[in-house]
């Protein structure tokens, strides 16, 4: 059972919109940031739940001189390691969205969704008509999918990171403190 819990905690399909920062790479970047800014912060842990179903909360606050304010993260995990990784990830993503640190440019682990085999689906024709009507109202042109069975190229159904939209939605430094 623990295997599935850890596997579920480790899955991150949204990392692309958060600068490719994941549980696997965020903790080392946070430690680099702390060291570069001469900050001596430590994770604070609390135990949650009964002995048979114990989990952990991890939190940390970091003062960011460039922003003139502190950032805070408080995250949950099935063990101390997962809790601290989640806490570090939360802080690193905040630093990224506030444009204090850069996006991760190293090798990214393939998402589970990238490894899925294609499969056939059937959709109610009435639903298809509703979808086309909605797309038409929103002035969105759906991608043409060839009916040719000889075409073996898969069609991606997920939305990839839209740089133009992503940049418009990123907060700018010097915003309102929480």
UniProtKB/TrEMBL annotation:
Xref: SMART domains: DSRM
Domain of life: Eukaryota
CDD domains: DSRM_DHX9_rpt2
Domain DRBM residues, every copy: 25-97
InterPro entries, A to Z: DHX9_DSRM_2, dsRBD_dom
Pfam families in the record: dsrm
GO molecular function per UniProt: double-stranded RNA binding; helicase activity
PROSITE patterns: DS_RBD
Keywords assigned by UniProt, alphabetized: ATP-binding, Helicase, Hydrolase, Nucleotide-binding, RNA-binding
SUPFAM superfamilies on file: dsRNA-binding domain-like
Protein name: ATP-dependent RNA helicase A protein like
Source species: Argiope bruennichi
């Amino acid at each position: 059972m623990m295997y599935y819990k850890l596997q579920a905690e480790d899955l991150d399909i949204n990392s692309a919109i958060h600068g490719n920062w994941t549980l696997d790479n965020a903790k080392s970047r946070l430690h680099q940031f702390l060291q570069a800014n001469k900050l001596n912060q430590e994770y604070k842990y609390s135990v949650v739940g009964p002995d048979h179903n114990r989990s952990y909360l991890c939190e940390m606050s970091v003062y960011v001189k460039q922003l003139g304010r502190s950032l805070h993260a408080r995250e949950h995990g099935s063990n101390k390691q997962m809790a601290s990784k989640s806490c570090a990830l939360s802080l690193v993503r905040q630093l990224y969205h506030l444009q204090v640190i850069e996006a991760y440019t190293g090798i990214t682990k393939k998402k589970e969704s990238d490894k899925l085999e294609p499969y056939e689906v059937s959709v109610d024709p009435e639903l298809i008509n509703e979808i086309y009507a909605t797309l038409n109202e929103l002035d969105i042109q759906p991608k043409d999918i060839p009916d040719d069975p000889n075409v073996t190229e898969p069609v991606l159904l997920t939305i990839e990171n839209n740089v133009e939209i992503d940049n418009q939605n990123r907060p700018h430094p010097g915003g309102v403190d929480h």
